[in-house]
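User: Let's play a game. I give you a shape written as tokens, and you guess the letters that built it. Ready? Here's round one.
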């Protein structure tokens, strides 16, 4: 989405948090398909609740119990579901799945997570940053703020932060050990967007880049589906753990974010995630509001 579109959705998310029933674009109720290739807690409950609050009815399906990917093309599935529902929400693996389904679908498709990107989480995080750092200015106040992400740079959250934060005009630095840094294609996409907004996108292995940051973010060192690699990752990632000393390098008033689930003692110390700078549960709540805003915006502008 464009910088203006993203800002519009974030402003709508704030409105819908103030009045959870201010918009009812799914009144009827209209139905929304919520599809899961991967297990989920926050995505499942936030979308189910959000669709209901928009006046709709969520039809939740585990794709393993359907014909999706078992001979039937995603294009045909998209065409079929479009006859039943007003939108499709999908948590899947390969990002190309969305492209294939979109070829047949005639309703909006929302990426609720793929191996490459997690845009709904990114929107919720930006909403949380606005609430804490620039509540009066709103999305415009994000420009010039600096966020750092520590940990696995080659995952969907790092990719989403680079692109989404740059779109908002925020400076974003990904701090990862050598061999675990973001793929060039996502860095280039983020820097292209940063060129439009005046933001900066940096990648480094130096934890000194945390100094003065307004937002400190991390994520699990072992993404879903990579559990067998967990033991091999602890040694290179341990210097990137967000503990009290790491947070102490950030600016006064800095906040800590984590998309959850978190593993205390690994990517983050308990003293941080359970401490006064942590906003992880506000962040989790904002999944509801940001996703409602995204869905309402898509339905009202399609």
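Assistant: Ready! My guess for every position:
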């Amino acid at each position: 989405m464009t910088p203006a579109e993203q800002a519009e959705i974030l402003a709508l998310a704030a409105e819908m948090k103030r009045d959870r029933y201010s918009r009812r674009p799914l009144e009827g109720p209209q139905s929304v398909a919520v599809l899961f290739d991967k297990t989920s807690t926050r995505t499942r409950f936030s979308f189910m609740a959000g669709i209901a609050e928009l006046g709709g009815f969520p039809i939740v399906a585990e794709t393993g119990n359907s014909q999706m990917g078992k001979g039937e093309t995603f294009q045909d599935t998209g065409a079929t579901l479009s006859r039943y529902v007003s939108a499709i929400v999908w948590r899947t693996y390969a990002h190309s799945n969305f492209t294939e389904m979109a070829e047949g679908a005639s309703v909006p498709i929302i990426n609720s997570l793929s191996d490459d990107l997690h845009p709904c989480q990114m929107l919720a995080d930006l909403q949380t940053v606005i609430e804490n750092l620039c509540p009066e200015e709103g999305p415009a106040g994000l420009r010039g703020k600096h966020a750092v992400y520590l940990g696995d740079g080659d995952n969907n959250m790092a990719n989403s932060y680079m692109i989404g934060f740059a779109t908002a005009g925020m400076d974003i630095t990904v701090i990862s050990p050598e061999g675990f840094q973001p793929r060039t294609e996502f860095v280039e996409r983020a820097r292209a967007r940063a060129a439009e907004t005046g933001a900066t996108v940096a990648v480094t292995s130096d934890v000194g880049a945390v100094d003065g940051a307004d937002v400190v973010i991390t994520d699990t060192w072992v993404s879903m589906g990579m559990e067998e690699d967990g033991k091999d990752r602890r040694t290179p990632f341990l210097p990137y753990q967000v503990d009290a000393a790491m947070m102490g390098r950030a600016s006064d008033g800095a906040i800590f974010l984590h998309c959850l689930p978190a593993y205390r003692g690994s990517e983050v110390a308990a003293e941080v995630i359970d401490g006064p700078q942590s906003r992880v549960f506000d962040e989790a709540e904002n999944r509801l509001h940001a996703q409602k805003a995204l869905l309402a915006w898509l339905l009202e502008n399609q």
